[in-house]
Amino acid sequence: MSQHTEQTLKLREVLARPPRERETPPVEVGRLLSAWMEREPISDIAGKIGLRDVGTLRQFVRLTTLPDDLQRLVTWGCKSGRLSFTVASEIARASSSAEQRRLADLALRDGWSKKDVQKALRDRPGTPV
Predict the structure, then answer these.
(1) This prediction's pTM
(2) Domains held by the chain: number
């Protein structure tokens, strides 16, 4: 079996499971997708793993732009002291590592949701969304 076929099967298996049953961490999914995107367009990848929209794949890939210490905090679902996949993906939209860390600290301290992070990004001048 080729490496490409193995990646396809692994990503299909991971994404087909309910989030709380996924063993592969979200950041690892992002790394797999990033490597795959060096060889194929994201829209082709989405079709091969059974997704209609590339938005979810972009969320995974964004996680790889977080500093390593924040990447280690990303998990499926909401867990104390951890960043959920969706919250972390929004934090990754911040323009600098310092801003990502600031948002992560607030999210962890105050239990922020994805929408809270989106609002903070909109309200902060100079931060692209």
Answers:
(1) 0.85
(2) 2
Q: Which helix (H) or strand (E) holds 75?
A: strand 74-75
Q: How many CB atoms lie within 10 A of CB 93?
A: 18
* 19 and 72 co-located in one domain: no
**Whole-angstrom distance, CA of residue 97 vs CA of residue 24:** 24
Q: What is the mean pLDDT of residues 93-106?
A: 96
User: How far is residue 101's CA from residue 97's CA, in Å, rounded to a whole number?
Assistant: 6
Over 80: is that where the pLDDT of 80 sits? yes
| Cα 124 to the center of its chain, rounded Å | 22
Phi-psi region of 49 (alpha: psi -120 to 50; beta: other; left: phi over 0): alpha
Q: Which of 64, 91, 114 is the last residue of a domain?
A: 64
Amino acid letter for position 35: A
Specify whether 85 is located in the same domain as 44.
Answer: no
Q: What percent of the chain has pLDDT over 70?
A: 93
- Contact in structure between 67 and 100 (CB atoms under 8 Å): yes
Q: How confident is the model at residue 2 (pLDDT cuts 50, 70, 90)?
A: low
